[in-house]
Amino acid sequence: MKTLVMVAALATTGAATPKMEGGRLQAGSTCYAIVAGDRTIGSTLQTITASRDGGKPAWDIVVHQKLENGAFDMRDHFIVDRETLLPIRMDSQRGRGRNEKGWHRVSVEYGAHGLRGTKETATGSTPLDVALARPTWDGNLWGLTFAALPLKEGGTYAVPFWQYDKGFGAFTARVVGSEDLDTPSGKIAAWIVEAGDDPAQLARYKIAKTTRQELGYAAGPSAQRLGGVCQ
Q1: In the chain, where does DSSP find H-type helix?
Q2: pLDDT of 96 above 90
Q3: What backbone phi and psi angles, to 5 degrees, belong to 78?
Q4: Closest residue by Cα to residue 21 from 216, 226, 211, 224
Q5: How far is CA 133 from the centre of its chain?
Q6: Judging by beta carbons within 10 Å of its beta carbon (0-12, 13-18, 19+), is residue 153 exposed, middle or buried?
Q7: 174 near 194, Cβ under 8 Å?
Q8: Res. 14: pLDDT tops 60
Q9: What's the pLDDT tens digit per position in 184-202?
């Protein structure tokens, strides 16, 4: 298989890369309901665990999404620097076996100047060998990446990323307001952040101001909110 070699481009927005605040995240597990219109169609279990990697503080993050009809089951596992959220390792598993449509297994190791790994699909295995010219975040980790930004009223941010299907890109995030939300644990003050990898189609995230917990998001007719049923 042909080795993929790429060089990171600067974000076209011209905005400076923001200083991430990964230390403001908190360990714990959160279950979300995935909804389409007025129907709950699945769940997401997000778990954040404090750990160490190479003697340095890290976050061990697992995001496991399931749709009720079994058409989609994906588990992403990230080891990231606890302060900067820069990725150290990432593993993504979708589906339950090679014969299932859409199945994949992706394993990536990040270094200071590049990343290496393997992407396996039903049709074969592709090695990944990608040069990094600047700090680059993992493009599969959305909500917590936005939560780690130095959010403030009117803030606008660009975060360079690499993603195993899309290659290099930049997340756009902007704080468009704040809101006091009623949640199962009480009222929480939240930032309203429009964010995503396409400036023309941003999702609207709600992120707790104090704990930086991801409280949910809405993207067109689809949404994710606290209170799903997770196993």
Answers
A1: 143-147
A2: no
A3: -120, 140
A4: 211
A5: 21
A6: exposed
A7: yes
A8: no
A9: 888 999 999 999 999 999 9
Which tokens sit at 21?
């605040």
Residue 141: other Cβ atoms inside 10 A? 21
CA distance 109 to 150: 26
**Secondary structure of 94-156 in HEC code, one letter for each residue:** ECCCCCCCCCEEEEEEECCCEEEEEEEECCEEEEEEEECCCCCEECCCCHHHHHCCCCCCCCE
Secondary structure (3-state) at 178:
strand
Nearest to 228, CA basis, from 66, 3, 54: 66
CA distance 68 to 117: 31
Q: How far apart are CA 37 and CA 35, in angstroms?
A: 6
| Beta carbons of 46 and 61 less than 8 angstroms apart | yes
104, 119 in Cβ contact below 8 A? yes
72 vs 8 pLDDT, higher one: 72
Cα 71-118-126 angle, rounded to 5 deg: 85
Cα–Cα distance for residue pair 60/63, rounded to 1 Å: 10
pLDDT at 73 over 50: yes
Amino acid at 75: R
Mean pLDDT of 109-118: 96
